[in-house]
Amino acid sequence: xxxxxxxxxxxxxxxxxxxxxxxxxxxxxxxxxxxxxxxxxxxxxxxxxxxxxxxxxxxxxxxxxxxxxxxxxxxxxxxxxxxxxxxxxxxxxxxxxxxxxxxxxxxxxxxxxxxxxxxxxxxxxxxxxxxxxxxxxxxxxxxxxxxxxxxxxxxxxxxxxxxxxxxxxxxxxxxxxxxxxxxxxxxxxxxxxxxxxxxxxxxxxxxxxxxxxxxxxxxxxxxxxxxxxxxxxxxxxxxxxxxxxxxxxxxxxxxxxxxxxxxxxxxxxxxxxxxxxxxxxxxxxxxxxxxxxxxxxxxxxxxxxxxxxxxxxxxxxxxxxxxxxxxxxxxxxx
Length: 334
Ligand code: KG4
Ligand code: ZN
What we know:
It is found in: Cytoplasm. By secondary structure, the protein is of the alpha/beta class. It contains 10 helices and 10 strands. Helix 5 runs parallel beside helix 7. The mean pLDDT is 95. Bound molecules: 5'-O-[(R)-(carboxyoxy)(hydroxy)phosphoryl]adenosine and zinc ion (ZN).
């Protein structure tokens, strides 16, 4: 069967085709990063308008690229939430109306489940049960994934998400928005000159807190004025050391507590090179299996929604063509 996946929850319009026999056969993406950079964050109204502008041309491009036709589709999966309501409505409207005209089912998808299942787009795939570290611009969660659809959030952020901390610290260093990848690149030319706090690293629970770390970056930036390139690189290095130490320490703690031997990392911050390297050496040292999506599928994309649709299709199908998006939606409420 052939499933079209549509992602439009925030600032990326992503579409993909997933074939149950041959896997992912094509994907296309328009990132709105340049549009929102000017404002230092995502502007919801501009996001919705850009989704409207790009979604149908992208759909045409996807079919051309894969030599498929709209009539080849057997189902359409789309992000139902959580996310920006106007942005979600664009993807949902296209999905539901197209499905209605073709008389095929739709599969509404939870955006975080898409991230969770993105490592299944790779050849080397995890097996249930596993621990998932989901680190994006909006979330920092440790999830005990018992099986498809059975998710327990065992750790969460008490304030800022990991990606948010990366973005805010990057902004303090003058790196623009979103700055996670730029900060990470800058850190490669820094060294261990400063040390920053590692919030909750030794706490008894599995929660995170990153707002204090961001404030510590702010104080260091103020103290070290005027900032030259070397100082900036050293601050980026210290920030990345702290945040990746906290994330990796909590992963190890969660694996031990839940007696799990498989860790799946997903979400935009999962693209971070240092986080990946630290987890790889921990996996060797502590003998657990480690799975990541490829870099292009760490950030928001249509492929993760298409594969989540493929998994979900086996569980339930929506044939009503009635829809509502869910801007606020807990993963445990699926
Ligand atoms: O998953 P995603 O595309 O969107 C959300 O659902 O939030 O994640 C975006 C986040 C941004 O905060 C961005 O700065 C961060 O992922 N990010 C990174 C890297 N690449 C993207 N953070 C650290 N290192 C990176 N290489
Ligand atoms: Zn996301």
